[in-house]
Amino acid sequence: xxxxxxxxxxxILYPLDNCIFDNxxxxxxxxxxxxxKMIESxxxxxxxxxxxxxxxKYVCECYNSLGIQNDVYGTLRHYTLxxxxxxxxxxxxxxxxWIARNFASFKCGETxxxxxxxxxxxxSNRELSREKIERLRxxxxxxxxxxxxSFGVVYVIDVEPDWFSNxxxxxxxxxxxxxxxxxxxxxxxxxENIKAKIEFHNGITSYRPDYDYPLPLLRTLDSFRRDINNxxxxxxxxxxxxxxxxxxxxx
Length: 251
Fold this sequence. Notes:
There is one protein chain. The chain is α+β, with helices and mostly antiparallel strands. The protein has one domain (about 1-210). The chain is about 40% helix and about 10% strand. It is built from ten helices and six strands, in the order E-H-E-H-H-H-E-H-H-H-E-E-E-H-H-H. The strands form two sheets. Strands 1-6-4-2 form a four-stranded mixed β-sheet. A two-stranded antiparallel sheet has the order 3-5. Helix 3 (about 55-65) packs across helix 4 and helix 4 (about 70-85) packs across helix 6. The longest helix has 18 residues, at about 130-145. About 25% of the residues are buried.
């Protein structure tokens, strides 16, 4: 397994060789270093998430009892519970390195990050009973311990298309020509298929790529730098300053 350490949060260039990027069976998984030991020993398994699904249900129940529907609730209810029906948990992957990189920017993953944010918001709500507050405090400590000394990680994995329920080209967004963000794993994926690991020791500045102009690859860097200002997703100022071509730095 190749291990590539990136210390610069603004480094959005693809960090591996062209042969990996061009391999149509390569997928990516953004996660947290706290889960690396488990992933590298057992891979990804159905119904084996790094969180307790009952904890997610409980936080959503607390939000429901208060009539609150914010971004945290939306992520937990519609993303975590919605895609699993609250029962079966299918690990998710993407064909796009930069999408996985963004998921790795969440402390301990999007679900646990949202779970902790929700607990921290709810634990001070005086409308909840003492019993609920006490359970929320225990959840806060349970998941906060995972955060210690963690950093983002992207795994690069060689897979077979029939291991996923939605691999085909029609799974994407036809209007924008963007592929499906989430590939849903339906078979256990062994750790032997991991080809590389990208570690982000100093954080990640989020970047969402456009699919209708060159991606930030070394081989397309000149074209990318000319077009990045036109990104429909918006780009962080620090990334624009690093990569975009302006009249000042052209002269």
